[in-house]
Design a protein that fits this description.
Number of strands: 2
Helix content: 40-55%
Order of helices and strands: HHHEEHHHHHHHH
Strand content: under 5%
Number of helices: 11
Structural class: mainly alpha
Largest sheet: 2 strands, antiparallel
Distance between the termini: 37 Å
Strand order of the largest sheet: 1-2
Length: 222
């Protein structure tokens, strides 16, 4: 599915990409070093199907295979308070710029198969969902099949847990909430166009697509 981004939206996205570049952008991540720094991560992100109960019950996101630049931007946003989830903020504030770069490199490499394999073609959305995705211009940032972002600071979202995507979209839309809002003007502008039912429909479709992100269970949890 192809769509185009309006000039105003494209300009806003470009500004956001520059503004959200984490402070550790110049730090080189070491995946091997990161392996020794994820003890606080594996208790949630190393258990398949693990659920969070705040602000509602949902499966925590799959982060193995996610873009390192995006993981770093997320951790930096929690550290600065732009993302307000208390548990993630508590963890992120303990990490140095080098720690964030190493952890991000580790999760990008985790579970990644040798060689580049093409994902299967996604199923087409219903006409209703297609119209919602077109209105939100989702492909314009998240790329073909929602798995090839136009910049690695944006996430791969195909195959992500639908319930997590739904909660994340609401956090962008209701970004002023003191404990779970997310400060991101582009995502807020997109999400504010939709009702809960519409956000849930988009999340359900995107979550059903074949994707590259996964949960790789920690050996002790297998």
């Amino acid at each position: 599915m192809k769509t185009t981004l309006s000039p105003m939206f494209a300009a806003a996205a470009a500004v956001l990409a520059l503004a959200s570049a984490p402070a550790q952008a110049q730090v080189t991540g070491d995946a091997k070093a990161g392996e020794g720094k994820v003890a606080m991560c594996i208790g949630c992100h190393g258990i398949v199907g693990y659920q969070s109960s705040f602000p509602e019950v949902y499966r925590v996101p799959k982060i193995a295979g996610q873009n390192a630049k995006y993981v770093a931007a997320v951790l930096d946003a929690y550290k600065k308070g732009d993302r307000k989830h208390p548990s993630m903020r508590g963890i992120a504030t303990t990490l140095s710029d080098q720690d964030i770069a190493d952890v991000s490199a580790y999760y990008e490499a985790l579970g990644k198969p040798a060689g580049a394999a093409e994902l299967p073609a996604p199923r087409e959305p219903s006409a209703q969902v297609a119209a919602l995705l077109q209105k939100g211009a989702c492909v314009s940032c998240h790329g073909d099949n929602y798995s090839k972002p136009i910049d690695p600071s944006y996430p791969k979202i195909a195959g992500q847990h639908a319930d997590y995507l739904y909660v994340a979209l609401k956090a962008y839309r209701d970004n002023s909430n003191a404990t779970w809002g997310r400060a991101n003007p582009v995502m807020a502008g997109m999400a504010k166009q939709f009702s809960n039912a519409e956000l849930k429909a988009m999340a359900k479709y995107i979550g059903s697509l074949p994707g590259e992100v996964k949960t790789v269970p920690e050996s002790r949890f297998r």
